[in-house]
Amino acid sequence: MVSDGAGALIKLALSGIGCGSVNDLFHAVRGLGRPIGSAIGRQMSQLKRQQDKLQQRYDKTTEPTKLEAIQQAMTLLSQQWQEVKQANQQYHDALHAITQAIHPFELSTRQWQMFSQLSANLSQPLEQLSSLAQPYGGEKAHSCH
Predict the structure, then answer these.
(1) Are 87 and 40 in contact (CB under 8 A)?
(2) Confidence grade of residue 6 (pLDDT, cut at 50, 70, 90)
(3) Cβ–Cβ contacts within 10 Å for residue 103, how many?
(4) Which of 13, 102, 120, 131: disulfide with 19, CB 3.0–4.6 Å?
(5) Which pLDDT tens digit goes with each residue over 11-20?
(6) CB-based burial of residue 129 (10 Å sphere; 0-12 exposed, 13-18 middle, 19+ buried)?
C-alpha cells in the first residue's frame, strides 16, 4: 500500500529541490539548514570564547570600576548566549518537523501521511528556517529556499 504522500514527496523531491531518490531528499533536508546551523554554532563558540576571556579578566582585576564594567559585559554576553541558544533550539525543532512532515508515516499514529497534509506540515518549519536565515544564514541560507 502506498499513500498519496509518496507521489507528493517524489514531486517535491524532483521539482522543488532536485532530488532523484528518497535518500537524496533526506540529505537535501539536512543541507537546507546547514548554513544556518553552522552560523549558529560559530556564534555560540565565539560567545563562549568571549565569556571565557571576560572571566579571566574578571578574575585578575581588583579595581571596582573595571570589575563593574566586566560584569556588565558578562551580563550582555549571557543575554546574547541565551538568544543564540534559543535560535539553536528553533533550528533543530524546524529540521525535526521537516523530517517528520516528509516521512511517509505519522510516527505517533502509524498512519500514512497524505499529500493534503504535506504543505501544511512544511509551512511552519520552513518559515522558522527562513526567519533564522535572516540573522544567521546570510546569502547562502537564502539561496537554499
Answers:
(1) yes
(2) low
(3) 14
(4) 13
(5) 554 455 555 5
(6) buried
